[in-house]
Amino acid sequence: MKRSATLTLFCLLALSACSNRAVDTETTRCAFADSPRTPAPAFICDPDISGFPVTVLLASEPSAESVSERINRTLTGQIALWADNWSQAWYQSEEGQQAANELLLKILADKARVVRSRASPTGTLWLMVGLPMSVAEVRSLTLATLPLR
Band of the pLDDT at 3, cuts 50, 70, 90? Predict the structure, then answer.
């Protein structure tokens, strides 16, 4: 009888260890980068958001700014980065790049959105910034307004 109870206890412990590992693996797969033991929402691990072909995951470190100020600063920074990168990639002349950058800033300010956000336990604000159009669509819209010369 004692041997049977010991064997049953051993089996339960083995099954428990296996199930804990599966849970730990899932948690580790989708956890905040700054809090790896804390499960994170799916957008942290999977940047595919329906309706937003262009997405980027960004982090705003804790600061004295309000949450809305941190969100606005992060969104504005990403818009400026996209505008700068795309204007330089699509136009050769400095004049063309400048005009494209100004146009892209307007387009992106109108279209880009923070589509998901969550604060981690350390106070880092994680933001998924999305654009409801592809890069090719943004490029076509830009070139339609400012043709290459």
Answer: low
SS3 for the chain, per residue?
Answer: CHHHHHHHHHHHHHHHHHHHHHHHHHHHHCEECCEEEEECCHHHHCCCECCECEEEEEEECCCCCCHHHHHHHHHHHHHHHHHHHHHHHHCCCHHHHHHHHHHHHHHHHHHCEEEEEEECCCCCEEEEEEECCCHHHHHHHHHHHCCCC
CB 106 within 8 A of CB 141: no
The tokens for 112 are 């880009």
Prediction pTM value = 0.77
